[in-house]
Amino acid sequence: MPNSHLRVRPKADRGLVSEVTPESAGWTYVGFALHRLESGKALKAETGKLEVCLVLVSGKIRLSIDGKDQGEIGERMSPFEGAPWAAFIPPGGNYELTATTEAEVAICSAPGAAGFPAKLIPPGTHPQITRGKGSNTRLVTNIMPENDGSAHSLLVVEVITPGGNTSSYPPHKHDQDDIPAESHLEETYYHRFNPPQGYGFQRVYTDDRSLDEVVLLEDGDVVMVPKGYHPVATIHGYDNYYLNVMAGPKRIWKFHNEPAHEWLFTGLGAPTAAR
């Protein structure tokens, strides 16, 4: 399996581990960076024209937003243990954080606008829900969903898919600015596995197959989804976690299911092949 141009491998063990920018991805809206910090290490930045969602993937940090101490946040030491702490910082803001344990911090970004104040997003703000059934069951925790009115562009969610299951399935896409039928959203997936030697697969493909890649997923990989369908499967014995960042011209998540697999939603049974 050739290395996919959609797959971003970790480039370091500490500090800035992975990064996707609109320039590196060749798109317009979504930015993603993953920092792994030793206890005592600090990170600070200004948001500029972007809005930012900090997601504490694991560990604890002390956080300051616009010079105001937010205290120590963080509970889980693994993304597979409970809900996340997060924080939103609008354009023109700044933040500084210091790891108080080993910590993994995701920086999710997109073009911003005035009118959305900075805030902490503690665990339980949006309850974890179960989506799908059978081997398509997964656990979804919204961090910044479309109906919370908290941002101009960003949509952020994390998902845990049990070993042997599928997710982002049946296949769907959101690459057309055609509201109310479908919205145009770029998307990144930050993948983790438990235990970490696990792996999975993600197919990214369009109706005309001008884009059709199967991406090998290993612990720490980031997958870019510029367009097309993008289902995920993890192998037996290894749970998969992913953190999704989406953004586009409108902060609306309206997706289009692949017609060939629409019957999986209807429960009417598989269509008979034409003869």
From TrEMBL:
Keywords recorded for this protein, A-Z: Isomerase
Pfam family, one: KduI
GO BP terms in the entry: inositol catabolic process
InterPro entries per UniProt: Deoxy-glucuronate_isom_IolB, KduI/IolB_isomerase, RmlC-like_jellyroll, RmlC_Cupin_sf
Keyword Isomerase: yes
GO molecular function: glucuronate isomerase activity
Superkingdom of the source species: Bacteria
Protein name listed in UniProt: 5-deoxy-glucuronate isomerase
Source organism phylogeny: Bacteria, Pseudomonadati, Pseudomonadota, Alphaproteobacteria, Hyphomicrobiales
